[in-house]
Amino acid sequence: MPWRLSGRQADAAKTMEHLTLGPLTRASGTVRLPGSKSISNRVLLLSALATGETRVRDLLDSDDTQVMLEALKVLGVTWRRDGGDCIVTGVGGHFPNKAADLFMGNAGTAIRPLTAALALQGGAYRLSGVARMHERPIGDLVDGLRQVGAAIEYLGTPGYPPLEIKPAQIRIDTPIRVRGDVSSQFLTALLMTLPMASAPSGRIEIEVVGELISKPYIEITLNLLARFGIVVERQGWERFILPAGAQYRSPGEIYVEGDASTASYFLAAGAIGGGPVRVEGVGLSSIQGDVRFADALNRMGANVMAGDNWIEVRGTERDDGRLNGIELDCNHIPDAAMTLAVAALFAEGTTTLTNIASWRVKETDRITAMATELRKLGATVEEGADYLKVTPPASNAWQTPADGIGTYDDHRMAMCFSLAAFGPLPVRINDPGCVAKTFPEYFSVFAGVAR
Q1: How many Cα atoms are found within 13 Å in the side-chain-facing hemisphere of 38?
Q2: Model pTM?
Q3: What is the pLDDT of residue 343?
């Protein structure tokens, strides 16, 4: 199909088998970002657990937030739409329904904190998801909850969903230990829910075992907890001290920032396609670590400007318009780093991305998936346990894979590889509708800035 999407074609892209893009030569314009998935699902759960009514503004409308909203409804939480807002009536820490069977799709930001919250409810619950969810680890979180008396059983492979939670008496009198080197969502789940538990000392300690990855996502969690009245004391990244028996209090109204991970595709398009491309909804005042993706583009030679609520990127000063290959520790931008792997196709030299082990336990094994698809385009790729090295193809060595770019039912794979259309050949994206997980209108919006 032709690249310039009409409204009807944009709707069709949600269900079509593949979408052919490019070749593209220019990118410019302004994009208003959808809400952050990570912030949206955290805010929904905290609003549900709080006392009072919370008006959530700019909530992301996507598959993952729909999963969380449906789960809350099944648990007896009342919420309603009011224009573009979602109004949640909190339950004061106690879900009305003490038995439920919850389907969580492939939403890690929903199943992990909900598992922790339900373990403290004294009810009987089952949580399951799609096949890939049953391959994503949750054992470290379950181990942490079992330390305080939670009764959780695996219904399939030990360490993975589906799960069954049974009534149990929760009491905390010793520090809880949780691994930090697999997923920061385990720590986030404990931070968001353990303040509801009781402890003789009046405080709860969480000790992180090993190196904590994706630290910026923990910063998001701590920031939002404070908005709901829970102040957490942090001693480095190794120990967190929470109040026990606390009550979450609604802030009344809360805004969801634009998604900084999603911003990366448009900012990279500005760097590769000349720009200027401006994203609105995130900026210097953002609480999301992925806004630092703009710093990485700056290191690659792109021109970057930013304000409190916007970031703008233009191309490089090089005559050939190419970026520069860099080596970068990506612990601070775990999701946006995927975009750098595709941007590396347009850089001189090799780009090395390190500290990305968490990619392997996401919607797919993103390290292997990224390496496989980049090689199809002609790139030379070295893959390790926690790193990726990408050397772009020569200008006359780009390839058009006959089977297209595989997206592995992973929204970020589809969005990342849209940038490959700035190369000399068209690119076919398979299953473009998988972007519905976080940004159903992605390809339509991308068509608005890419030419």
Answers
A1: 26
A2: 0.89
A3: 98
